[in-house]
Amino acid sequence: MQYEAVIGLEIHAQLLTDSKAFCGCSTRFGAPPNTQVCPVCLGMPGVLPVLNKRAVEFAIKMAFATNCEINPKSVFSRKNYFYPDLPKGYQISQYDEPLTKSGYIDIDVNGTKKRIGITRIHMEEDAGKLLHGETYEDSDYSFVDLNRAAVPLIEIVSEPDMRSSDEAVEYLKALRDILVYLEICDGNMEEGSFRCDANVSVRPIGEKKLGTKAELKNINSFRFIQRAIEYEIKRQIEVIEEGGRIIQETRLFDSDKGITISMRSKEEAHDYRYFPEPDLLPLEIDAEWIDEIRRNLPELPAQKRERFVNEYGIPQYDADVLTSSKALANYYEGCVKFYNKPKVISNWVMGELLRLLKEGGRDISQSSSFKIQPEALAKLLNMIDSSAISSKIAKEVLEEMYKTGKDPDAVVKEKGVVQISDEDTLIKAIDDVLSKNPKEVSDYKEGREKLFGFFVGQVMKATKGQANPQVLNKLLKERLSK
Fold this sequence. Notes:
Distance between the termini: 77 Å
Structural class: alpha+beta
């Protein structure tokens, strides 16, 4: 029997607000444990939460970016469960009346477009974090850091529309790109500001009824998500074919072993006992404010990709790479303003520039560590066009610019690598090479035309790679034809 997977994702994105969801405590990552807390986020008796308006604004931005309906009225609820990193004993979330619902995004998987539905996007607060014994000298204990408690989140719940791990990863990447473009989440999976739970089930192909799902919790990289889903699909098919029964459960992914492990079964799952949060009024949003947020939305990744193809005439592949981050897209457009050859710039940015960044472990968005400004790259490319330097030399100059931040003119002058285009100088170098290689000259004139490359290489060696290739080829052909 042939099976198909049915996959839905629940994504938690921490919002880039300065303060927490219901109090004024800082959301800065990396502070010493339990230094960014107060009676409100610790859930002390008698305290009252106050909703962070900026968090609501960010959630609405994401709703627009994912084609969701915005409910004019939504309700916060208490989600009750007990865990060491949840100081209140409940989490303020949204349940049956969320902020947004019924959206979608389109993804591209191996050249095929697919629409993934979004059930809802709701607001909630984050829990704290457990630091287990291996982090400290005493491995017999776990410690609780509540700095993250009550940091504002949005949870993006998809429809079960994905059928493969590839589709799930592309959907996840697309959502992350949107969040980062909107500047409402940094998308950092390692730090936990962007996290994913995957609901996976299988069923016979052609079957309409959903199979029993397993939930894969808190996976923190695209590669691990892909591996976890693929393993879980394989596991469930094997259980069914061996006559077993899939149970609804929560499972964890062991990245070292590449397997999923049962965490708790349905019978052990929490009864959340949702009820409306008594300390927060229903959230009613003014229509004018919603319109203002819509008007101020930035250009989103899909829109930018389409514009790059249409406006700059570059291939779709180039547009996909160049818009993979907002900073890279802005850098590319900055270069085009100074050097109006979009495809040439695309080649240099995707090739040499990204290679240097990858080798140096740097990010183009980190201005303090990235020293080649768009105007400087444009100047370098103009030097190639004017035959001042060759493309080969330009790559060496770019590396020095990357290391030092120096202007290309200064690097070329320091290295003494100005391209030689003067015909008299090149003829002298050519004649010297020909006089030293009479046998090769004779063989060339007798029909061994492949020796032309040998002569080019010898002249390049003699001129330390500074000969203008076009001028050199022309003059060399002339001298050899005599």
